[in-house]
Amino acid sequence: MHGLVIVSNNAKTAVAYDALSGRLEWKQKLDGPSSFGPLAHQDSVLAVSNSLYVLNSRTGKVRRRFSWSGLRPKEADSTPQGIVLTFWPLLSGNKLTMEDADSENRKALETASRIMIFIAKSGLQRTKELVESGISFRYAPAMRLLYLSGYHAVDVLRPATGTLLCRLNIADDTGGGIAPVDVKDKKIYALTGDGSVYALRHPRCSAVC
């Protein structure tokens, strides 16, 4: 953006370099390591660490910062309506017996990793609990819709509210789940964990239906 190459890293920083000279242009500290992004969002950059940072893409200054008690952002995407975000599973640091620890970890995987946050331009947040856990997602500008990849299905959602418009089920064993999909020419392309690629006819749903 603006002739800059912008990266975030595990050293708890976001940095920008001049694309031609490689000169460091700005550096911004984050509150944790960043292994996802950054993402262009309107005229800003989103950096995902222990919080979600909205940075000035020209200077690196923090425009907004969103944090959630006990929850750490996993991945995000930018839509015309705002920002969509999911979280890592919330695992307890308490000492538990092996049986209790397994039970609590499974419970955590089925709760925190199912929460999706929709942040409007105003900063207003809408929380939605998803049917499946451990999912990935992607916003497709061509269709103006949000696509959630689970273990056996792809959900198509409204990008502003998370309202489920339709679900595409894959009957076969996916070998561990479905990767974030690509959408082109009214077809949804899905790669599954067993190495199969599916070309699915896009259902008749839209962001305004």
Summarize the SSE layout with pairings.
Layout: E1 4-8, E2 13-18, E3 24-29, E4 36-41, E5 44-48, E6 52-56, E7 62-66, E8 73-79, E9 82-87, H1 98-109, E10 115-120, E11 125-129, E12 136-140, E13 145-149, E14 153-157, E15 164-169, E16 182-184, E17 187-191, E18 197-201
Antiparallel strand pairs: 1-2, 2-3, 4-5, 5-6, 6-7, 8-9, 9-10, 10-11, 12-13, 13-14, 14-15, 16-17, 17-18
Report strand %: over 45%
Main beta-sheet annotation = 4 strands, antiparallel
In which range does the helix fraction lie?
under 10%
> How confident overall, as mean pLDDT?
86
Spatially, the strands of the biggest sheet line up as 4-5-6-7
Number of helices: 1
Assigned CATH class of the domain at 1-66: Mainly Beta
**Computed CA radius of gyration, to the nearest angstrom:** 18 Å
Distance between the termini: 34 Å
Tell how many strands the DSSP assignment holds. 18
